[in-house]
Specification:
The protein is built from twelve helices and ten strands. It has about 260 residues and is α/β, with parallel strands linked by helices.
């Protein structure tokens, strides 16, 4: 007999080479309790090892993507519990996912939900999307990137306002700040994200992974070292079958057939 927790994350293959993850805890507005966060990490670990998966989309419900962490968990935790929390290791697994990851957001994305959004490479939001880090309302601060990744994406002033005042960004503000890649009509975020994923999945898989890795390294690497890393990644792709196929298809004026090799 399956446990109810088995259904808190729905994993659905979608077309060729695309995987769709649906956060499915509506009674908690998809609050990212440890069990749900772990399910996300497990699904991404499995997708990373599956050569047939080339891109992943993660989404929530119509009115909320994910409304933060589980307050019941936070309320019972003291300093020792916070320091020994398994969640940082789970978050690291999500951030280290090597394939393109796209968020489709409708409605609210708060706290840990917004930190999950920031783990994604592309973010599509409906017009009524809201993105916030309201943890200071509870007497704490963000603990999974809300004071680290957020200012790198939206800038110091916006991040300070979001963290210190708890004020969320609208979808348009998040787009203008660089947190969101595209704003679409309400109800269209998932379809748009799936279309993006299909386009990515139709491209050379190794190039997609290396492109993601090199762009993300901007936040962690000195420019000179990053330029060296980029050139090494660029050069490594010249030994792949996909590079040979791409150039051959170009000269033969046909669509390439990527193998991820």
């Amino acid at each position: 007999m399956s446990d109810a927790s088995d259904n808190i994350l729905l994993v659905e293959p979608h077309g060729d080479h695309v995987l769709l993850l649906r956060l499915n805890r509506p009674e908690k507005r998809n609050a990212l309790a440890t069990d749900l966060l772990c399910k996300v990490a497990e699904a991404l670990d499995t997708a990373a090892a599956n050569d047939s998966v080339r891109a992943v989309v993660i989404t929530g419900a119509d009115k909320f993507f994910a409304a933060g962490a589980d307050i019941n968990e936070l309320a019972t935790r003291d300093t020792g519990g916070a320091l020994n929390d398994p969640r940082p290791a789970i978050w690291a697994r999500i951030r280290n996912f090597t394939k393109p990851l796209i968020a489709a957001v409708e409605g609210w994305s708060l706290g840990a939900g917004n930190e999950l959004v920031m783990c994604c490479d592309l973010v599509v939001s409906g017009e009524r999307g809201k993105f916030g880090q309201p943890e200071t309302n509870l007497g704490i601060i963000p603990g999974a990137g809300g004071t680290v990744t957020l200012p790198r994406l939206v800038g110091r002033s916006r991040a300070m306002k979001m963290v210190l005042l708890g004020d969320p960004l609208s979808a348009q503000e998040a787009f203008e700040a660089g947190l969101v890649s595209e704003v679409v009509a309400d109800g269209e975020a998932l379809a748009t994200a799936l279309d993006m994923a299909a386009r990515i999945a139709a491209r050379a898989p190794l190039a997609m992974q290396q492109g993601k890795a090199m762009v993300r390294a901007t936040f962690e690497t000195h420019q000179a070292a990053h330029l060296t890393m980029e050139r090494q990644a660029f050069s490594a792709l010249f030994g792949t079958a996909d590079k040979k196929e791409g150039t051959t298809a170009f000269f033969e004026k046909r669509d390439p057939e990527w193998t991820g090799r």
